[in-house]
């Protein structure tokens, strides 16, 4: 039996925000915050889904349906490996982790950290020592951004000194920059120098993430496929945003439960229309549709 793997983004893919799905679904009820439960109704069908409300430092409340969690486990019962791949900072990921589907791997901070059997994969981390040399296995040992070593943090300090709004709170391998329409051209000019520094940048839900070029979601996925001896054709990506595009190009096929960046729409309708597909439903219902499709397709193979 051949080995297969699904790489899934969180925000906008498995986890959805009301401002993204307001035309397709409505939050009809929320309960005691201790239970983390909420209910969302699909506008077109009237179907209601029980969901879990998830915290975020910057994006507000996100929702993941309980059925989405069950569908992921159904996939794993078919011996399909499941990997969460997110740009989220470490604190957000770990706060959400108890409420997320169980996964075989977790990749967060745009590929900066890989968890394998609940442990940080230090072999992976060693790949970008040139720009971020402070390799640690205990997060509490990480010094504050202002005193961290390496090019990544030199750039962080330089941007802060020039007045950019930078955010490294609870990040260990990346940081976030607020980029508006007003300074978008200036930001684009700055990022042309990142390649020579060994850095990369991608937009994630309207913010610019800066991280080592040797990390990134696609590089992390490639590393895990090599680790598990899985062929590209046996990989699937679930995603929605600009910082997932390289991952979508890498994997054998992709399913998008929504689109949160115009560049993704442009590529979907162009060169990748044979390998990328968009679900009919959106929000938590789109996530369920994508996972349902995968379950049926893997059963047929």
Question: Secondary structure elements and their pairing?
Answer:
Elements: E1 4-8, E2 16-17, H1 18-21, E3 25-30, E4 37-42, E5 48-54, E6 62-65, H2 66-77, E7 80-85, H3 90-96, E8 105-108, E9 113-116, E10 119-120, H4 122-125, H5 151-161, E11 166-167, E12 175-177, H6 184-191, H7 194-197, E13 199-204, E14 207-212, H8 217-227, E15 235-238, H9 245-250, E16 253-256, H10 262-268, E17 276-278, H11 283-300
Parallel strand pairs: 1-7, 1-15, 7-8, 15-16, 16-17
Antiparallel strand pairs: 2-6, 3-4, 4-5, 5-6, 8-9, 9-10, 11-12, 12-14, 13-14
Any idea of the CATH class of the largest domain?
A: Alpha Beta
Query: Looking at the structure, what is the overall shape?
Result: globular
CATH superfamily of the largest domain: HAD superfamily/HAD-like
How do the SSEs run, as a string of H and E? EEHEEEEHEHEEEHHEEHHEEHEHEHEH
Q: What's the CATH architecture name of the largest domain? A: 3-Layer(aba) Sandwich
Q: Span from first to last CA? A: 10 Å
Number of strands: 17
- Measured on Cα atoms, how large is the radius of gyration? 19 Å
Helix content bin: 25-40%
Largest sheet: 8 strands, mixed
Estimated structural class:
alpha/beta
How many helices does DSSP assign?
A: 11
Q: How large is the share of residues in beta strands?
A: 15-25%
For the biggest β-sheet, the strand order reads 10-9-8-7-1-15-16-17
Could you report the average pLDDT, rounded to the nearest whole number?
A: 89
Q: Note the quaternary state here.
A: single chain
Total count of domains: 2
**Low-confidence runs:** none
* CATH fold field value of the largest domain: Rossmann fold
């Amino acid at each position: 039996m051949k080995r297969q793997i699904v790489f899934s983004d969180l925000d906008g893919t498995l986890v959805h925000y009301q401002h993204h799905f307001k035309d397709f679904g409505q939050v009809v009820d929320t309960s005691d915050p201790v239970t983390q439960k909420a209910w969302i109704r699909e506008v077109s069908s009237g179907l209601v889904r029980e969901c879990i409300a998830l915290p975020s430092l910057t994006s507000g409340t996100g929702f993941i349906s309980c059925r989405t969690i069950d569908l992921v486990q159904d996939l794993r019962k078919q011996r399909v490996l499941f990997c969460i791949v997110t740009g989220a900072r470490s604190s957000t990921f770990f706060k959400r982790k108890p409420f997320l589907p169980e996964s075989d791997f977790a990749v967060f901070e745009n590929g900066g950290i890989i968890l394998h059997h609940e442990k940080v994969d230090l072999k992976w981390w060693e790949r970008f020592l040139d720009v971020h040399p402070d390799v640690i296995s205990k997060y509490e040992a990480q010094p504050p951004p202002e005193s961290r070593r390496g090019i990544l943090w030199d750039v962080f300090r330089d941007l802060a000194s020039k007045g950019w709004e930078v955010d490294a709170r609870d990040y260990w391998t990346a940081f976030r920059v607020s980029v508006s329409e007003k300074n978008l051209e200036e930001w684009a000019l700055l990022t042309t120098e990142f390649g020579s520094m060994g850095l990369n940048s991608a937009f994630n839900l309207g913010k610019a993430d800066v991280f080592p070029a040797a990390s990134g979601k696609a590089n992390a996925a490639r590393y895990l496929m090599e680790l598990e001896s899985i062929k590209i054709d046996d990989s699937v990506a679930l995603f929605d945003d600009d910082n997932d595009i390289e991952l979508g190009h890498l994997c054998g096929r992709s399913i998008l439960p929504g689109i949160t960046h115009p560049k993704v729409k442009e590529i979907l309708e162009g060169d990748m229309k044979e390998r990328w597909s968009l679900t009919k439903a959106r929000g938590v219902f789109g996530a369920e549709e994508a996972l349902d499709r995968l379950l049926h397709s893997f059963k047929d193979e």
